[in-house]
């Protein structure tokens, strides 16, 4: 999954594609490098991120989705939003897409009904609070058990609302300390055993660069290492900034497995 950040303030400066020319270049490069799907976001979810008005988020998302549909009309694409209205507009304007919701319906419960009404795949991520407050909400009894219990309840709710296609994302870096991220990674296989596709988003995150005392710009080797471990434990989707390296990782992993 290639990240298309239509934002001026994403945590990794190299991923900011704020403008039509930058978006088009990013999309063309990702296609050439072998991505399987795109994820378009217009609202930065980095820790401490400020709120973005709905209409501004939609303007950004509409621009990104429009360019992708123009260049690769049949390529699967998701919209990275927690707002029901943005998801609804995206589906009605651009057809069937995935909804990638960092809050799993906690911030805007109506988004679950949008996923059910249009029968689109719904990616539910574990997070507490909002991007602005999440890093103050890291008190867990047992991070792995708590996340597993959360998804048991969440999946039941999604099914009760009529959502049929569910993907789970443990939410690395969202309302988790550095140590908790690695505890959660160690138990990732338990989430994968629940029978739903699991998306792993570890690309250039603070669990890499804070551990190594570097920066997001220097976190590609760590991203590759953690990507392999996520695949080894059963993750089905890697959400990444660096497509070529992720594609190579998947190809080598598949060869190793076979």
From TrEMBL:
Its cofactor is Mg(2+). The keyword Magnesium applies. InterPro entries: DHP_synth-like, DHP_synth_dom, Dihydropteroate_synth-like_sf, Pterin-binding_dom. GO terms for biological process: folic acid biosynthetic process; tetrahydrofolate biosynthetic process. Pathway: Cofactor biosynthesis; tetrahydrofolate biosynthesis; 7,8-dihydrofolate from 2-amino-4-hydroxy-6-hydroxymethyl-7,8-dihydropteridine diphosphate and 4-aminobenzoate: step 1/2. This is dihydropteroate synthase. It comes from Candidatus Alistipes avicola. Gene3D superfamilies: Dihydropteroate synthase-like. Its EC number is 2.5.1.15. It is an enzyme of class 2 (transferase).
């Amino acid at each position: 999954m290639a990240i298309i950040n239509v934002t001026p303030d994403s945590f990794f400066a190299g991923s900011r594609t704020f403008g039509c020319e930058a978006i088009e270049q990013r999309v063309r490069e990702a296609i050439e490098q072998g991505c399987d799907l795109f994820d378009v976001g217009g609202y930065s979810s980095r820790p401490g991120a400020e709120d973005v008005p709905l209409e501004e988020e939609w303007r950004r998302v509409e621009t990104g989705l429009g360019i992708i549909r123009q260049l690769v009309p049949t390529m699967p694409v998701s919209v990275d939003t927690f707002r029901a209205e943005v998801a609804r507009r995206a589906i009605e304007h651009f057809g069937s897409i995935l909804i990638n919701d960092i809050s799993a319906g906690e911030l805007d419960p109506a988004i679950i009904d949008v996923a059910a009404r249009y029968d689109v795949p719904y990616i539910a991520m574990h997070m507490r609070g909002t991007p602005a407050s999440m890093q103050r909400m890291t008190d867990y009894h047992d991070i792995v058990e708590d996340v597993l219990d959360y998804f048991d309840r969440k999946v039941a709710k999604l099914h009760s609302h009529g959502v049929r296609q569910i993907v789970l994302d443990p939410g690395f870096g969202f309302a988790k300390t550095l140590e908790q991220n690695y505890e959660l990674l160690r138990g990732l296989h338990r989430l994968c055993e629940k029978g739903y596709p699991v998306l792993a988003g570890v690309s250039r995150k603070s669990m890499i660069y804070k551990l190594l005392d570097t920066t997001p710009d220097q976190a590609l080797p760590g991203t590759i290492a953690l990507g392999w471990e996520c695949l080894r434990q059963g993750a089905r989707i890697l959400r990444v900034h660096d497509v070529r390296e992720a594609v190579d990782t998947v190809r080598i992993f598949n060869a190793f497995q076979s």
